[in-house]
Design goal:
elongated
């Protein structure tokens, strides 16, 4: 009887010591070490790839797309695009995020509609007409064949922060007209904010819409 109690006590003691050691190692030391390395070597990425404006205020993340719309008017279900800013890809969020409202994020999600879905086809057709109408200004007309796919379709997440240089260039004349800038000034802005392929050969060139609009705000003297 005494041996049995003694063995049980020793096993419980060993289990408790193992629990304490593993808790300290895996629950304290390891997380602190990983966090320290991440902050030291990849501080911006570890903190969410935050993007700041000219005043140093955090205005979003370079990894999450944002919309640039006018205030919702009475009777409207969806707000109209604010055409003085570069517009991102269409978004297909699932609704307002009640947890993190700092950037008015949408919950990530794709349409999950087949290519022959009539609602999807209509949405793409309407989006294409809007891109052509919004970006055709005096002396410049957008042709249907010039509208890239990402201008009328959302990404798998629905929150893609980037557009192609092609879509950015389509918006140049409209941006110049709406902001009283020359086309050359806006073209230069797009070129300066175009990121090449990863390692020179992976993926496609991209333009981060948030960073581009921050630079546009500075150029127009509004930032």
């Amino acid at each position: 009887m005494n041996n049995s109690v003694g063995n049980t006590a020793r096993l419980m003691g060993a289990g408790l010591r193992a629990l304490l050691v593993l808790t300290v190692l895996c629950g304290v030391i390891y997380p602190l070490a990983v966090t320290g390395i991440a902050q030291a070597a990849f501080g911006n990425k570890a903190n969410g790839s935050e993007v700041k404006d000219a005043q140093g205020k955090v205005v979003g993340s370079e990894l999450i797309g944002q919309t640039y719309n006018l205030p919702l008017k009475k009777g409207e279900e969806t707000p109209a695009a604010d055409l003085k800013w570069f517009q991102p890809r269409p978004s297909n969020g699932l609704g307002a995020n009640a947890v993190n409202t700092q950037y008015k994020l949408l919950l990530s999600g794709a349409t999950n509609k087949a290519g022959n879905n009539t609602e999807l086809i209509k949405a793409i057709d309407d989006a294409k007409k809007a891109v052509i109408k919004d970006n055709s200004v005096n002396g410049y007309t957008v042709k249907p064949s010039e509208v890239p796919a990402e201008a009328v379709t959302s990404s798998g997440s629905g929150l893609d922060p980037d557009i192609s240089p092609t879509y950015a260039r389509i918006q140049v004349h409209r941006i110049a007209e709406k902001n009283g800038l020359s086309v050359a000034q806006v073209e230069k802005l797009v070129k300066e904010h175009t990121d090449g392929r990863i390692l020179g050969f992976m993926g496609e060139p991209t333009v981060n819409v948030l960073k581009l609009n921050i630079a546009l705000k500075q150029l127009t003297g509004k930032g």
